[in-house]
Design a protein that fits this description.
Layout: H1 2-11, H2 18-62, H3 65-68, H4 73-83, E1 93-100, E2 135-145, E3 162-172
Antiparallel strand pairs: 1-2, 2-3
Helix pairs in contact: 2-4
Length: 176
């Protein structure tokens, strides 16, 4: 019994495990920082991929290909999905097309996504392809899942814990 008490008293002066304790204290924030950096870089990469999809998809509207083919909203959405990489699930891609005769006629206000009780998007996005010479704004959106959203404040900007990626293209249609 006495030797157990003496052993406890000597632990106070024992510094053999100090390095292990310091490492344990420092590794946790370091791993969190590395994971946050990794997640942020993936979000930036996905955003750039979505912007490439928007630019490629806007070409159909700019040249009048979609208008002359009388593409419906669903058909154009399918065209956008076909250009998207495997990073994105087609069912979660949202497309908004607005047109106007002048730049002042189109709305450039940020889109607010609304959700139902099950977390499904309830917005009804427009699909107005306009006429030759009109100004068109194309927005392609995607709810990107954020892993550990509570631990990474600021990355999850939607009420469902996702990060909304928005790719925008504004252009004037060619005479077709």
């Amino acid at each position: 019994m006495r030797s157990a008490f003496r052993r406890l008293l000597t632990l106070k002066r024992d510094e053999r495990a100090a390095t292990a304790v310091e490492f344990a204290l420092l590794i946790t924030p370091l791993v969190a920082l590395i994971l946050a950096s990794l997640q942020l870089s993936i979000i930036f990469f996905a955003g750039q991929q979505l912007q490439s999809v928007a630019m490629a998809s806007s070409r159909e509207l700019m040249t009048g290909t979609a208008q002359q083919a009388s593409e419906t909203k669903a058909q154009y959405h399918a065209d956008v999905c076909a250009k998207a990489s495997t990073l994105f699930s087609c069912s979660n891609i949202m497309v908004d097309v607005e047109s106007g005769s002048t730049y002042n006629a189109i709305s450039t206000t940020p889109i607010t996504i609304t959700y139902d009780a099950h977390g499904n998007v309830t917005n009804n996005f427009s699909y107005s392809t306009g006429n030759p010479g009109d100004i068109i704004i194309l927005r392609v959106m995607y709810n990107w899942p954020v892993v550990g959203g509570g631990l990474l404040p600021g990355l999850a900007d939607q009420s469902n814990g996702n990060h909304l990626l928005v790719a925008t293209s504004v252009f004037k249609t060619e005479p077709y």
